């Protein structure tokens, strides 16, 4: 037994009564990483500082593990007690490993429907696992939610929460809060009816469903609901802001991230785009698509909501990570939520009321003209408004927005938000979409390309109080990985062209880089092993919406492929192929080896 | 699916009833047995492995193949039935595999394509046989055949930045919509904006 170093470990392993409150405590243990964003506030910050800006240049590979699949790997490894857990892309195999040696403890192989791959819009990814009370929770692409015994991998229950014949898949990572497992649904390009589902952790029984559109009773809007702006007040706006019946096939899915504030007992998440992309088929604000929800996790009732993009015309979902932090703004301590919008605006929102405190562009934006802080409404640029069968050119940002699913990281030391994102513009032509259940419901021909300056991605640090970018690193391709920041003031990300990078969190200087086997769209995590060493782990395996041109049967010569992302990514296959490998790094055991960098420097661009 | 079929009826109505009937008579026999009770289309192999060196399989041609409008109609169906959503404009691929480069796992002969659409395929291709008449499927086959072009004439394909390979891309579909997209090409764009039209 090598357990003595963890004061919290007896609580983890010996107590069967651990609840979500304990999970919150558990998430504070620097040795572990118990949920995809490490904590309920979604900071992706670890206080560990053994690896720091002064010695990260000596980082070396410690061990690797093949996930056995070669499509996009987006899941964050979790580290609970003396076990690491990770899930692969379809068919969503779960592996339990020794975090120090990489030894395989158990494997769980779900019988995920092969046909589900045909209704997954943007690669067959999954974004991770959840943990609570001795159980690992996973979702499968074919919409099963499964609980596993964390110690043995034994299946405890499995509940189906969606139907692939309606175009529904599940890719969002679940989150455990107060005895419930929360899961989303994907399929905003398939005419699904978006929702979140809460299941009982112990039985898998569905506690409630909260829809993204429809009557108030389906959206769980009741007497507790206090929206921040008048235009979101009224009965059944989730019906009345759509043409008749269109809300039933209008998307407003949830394929991104949940955050949770235990003090306010509020669950936060954003909804996806309205469907179809051809907006002429759905006049109205299309509530509650592209909307931030604040809910009571116990009964699902909405406390408030804020729609980022009324009547979205550009596929600007707003499912991004919402980072919950307390900031000094205007001399007062404010409980805020940071949301780097897909629309290109960095939002600072009062997380008690939903009011927008500031919204500033962090990438090239001409699709909108600004966010009115009085009304909370974004102003679309009507000169670029896509009308049927007209090609509009040079619209920025493109459908994946200035940032897509990529998890950000927040350092309480630097007070900066670390944002992996893309820098893309597009040509866009709307067309009539016909609804056939279980098939795409899009109605747009899209062609994306590099934004001004010719680069396609960026890793940057943002100061939400000063409302400005502090530093930026331009990357050739969209930075589709997540970010990590540590107490050692090291920020970590990875690129689609196979570089893993550690940078100085204060200056953005690249301190270490490593050429991976495949491009990475994974989420880096860090933990302390039972040997006392700090490790950094990430999944590699290029993919996701931008990566299918390198990992699947997509023709780089046809720009409109992959819902238009091929145009921007057509040279990716000259840098990488698909892969699927968990890679773990540490400093050498001998401290003398920590001095000099031995890895090659990144190529100049 | 009902809305899809309704749409189909509207589309067919626009085509001229008599010509449509003639096409249908010619096309809707793929799954009809011959007088001897054979189904020629089922004899077309999907695999190149045929143990025991049997006699060559029958040639099954597209009954709509002589009609120059078949690919054009197929393009309209490709969009109306949302094939375009998965396989992308001009068959570039995305949710579903590319059709533009003739790398079909289940065969690229007309009979292979017909059966792939009719039966569906296990990795996510829906089975359309219950929803679409055979004549529509044969028009889709004609369109898929017209948009495919192998990346180059060699056994394999080289991918590199220097020298640039591939060297060309299609003129994107936001500028040109045609059943013969390989007739319109421009230099490979490497992720930069395509030539403005």
Can you put this structure into words, describing what you see?
- The complex is a heterodimer of chains A (605) and B (197).
- Chain A is mostly beta strands.
- Helices cover 5% and strands 33% of the residues of chain A.
- Chain A contains 6 helices and 38 strands.
- In chain A, strands 1-32-33-34-35 form a 5-stranded mixed sheet, with no helix packed on it.
- The model of chain A is unreliable at 1-18 and 592-600 (pLDDT under 50).
- The radius of gyration of chain B is 18 Å and the shape is globular.
- In chain B, helix 5 (110-119) packs across helix 6 (134-147).
- The longest helix of chain B has 14 residues, at 134-147.
- Chain B is built from 6 helices and 2 strands, in the order ααααααββ.
- With 197 residues, chain B is mainly α.
- The interface between A and B is large, with 57 and 52 residues.
Main features:
heterodimer, A: 605 residues, mainly beta, Methanol Dehydrogenase, Chain A, 6 helices, 5% helix, globular, B: 197 residues, mainly alpha, Cytochrome Bc1 Complex, Chain D, domain 2, two-stranded antiparallel ribbon
Helix and strand topology:
The complex is a heterodimer of chains A (605) and B (197).
Chain A (H helix, E strand, L loop, with lengths): L8 H6 L5 H7 L18 E2 L13 E7 L11 E3 L2 E5 L6 E4 L6 E5 L21 E3 L2 E5 L4 E6 L5 E6 L14 E3 L2 E4 L11 E6 L5 E6 L4 H4 L17 H4 L18 E3 L4 E5 L20 E5 L6 E6 L15 E7 L2 E9 L4 E6 L5 E6 L6 E4 L6 E3 L10 E5 L13 E3 L4 E7 L1 E7 L13 E7 L6 E7 L4 E8 L8 E3 L3 E5 L4 E6 L5 E6 L9 E4 L5 E7 L3 H8 L14 H4 L11 E6 L19
Parallel strand pairs in A: 1-32
Antiparallel strand pairs in A: 2-38, 3-4, 4-5, 5-6, 7-8, 8-9, 9-10, 11-12, 12-13, 13-14, 15-16, 16-17, 17-18, 19-20, 20-21, 21-22, 23-24, 25-28, 26-27, 27-30, 28-29, 30-31, 32-33, 33-34, 34-35, 36-37, 37-38
Chain B lengths: L1 H13 L2 H11 L42 H11 L2 H5 L22 H10 L14 H14 L20 E3 L14 E3 L10
Antiparallel strand pairs in B: 1-2
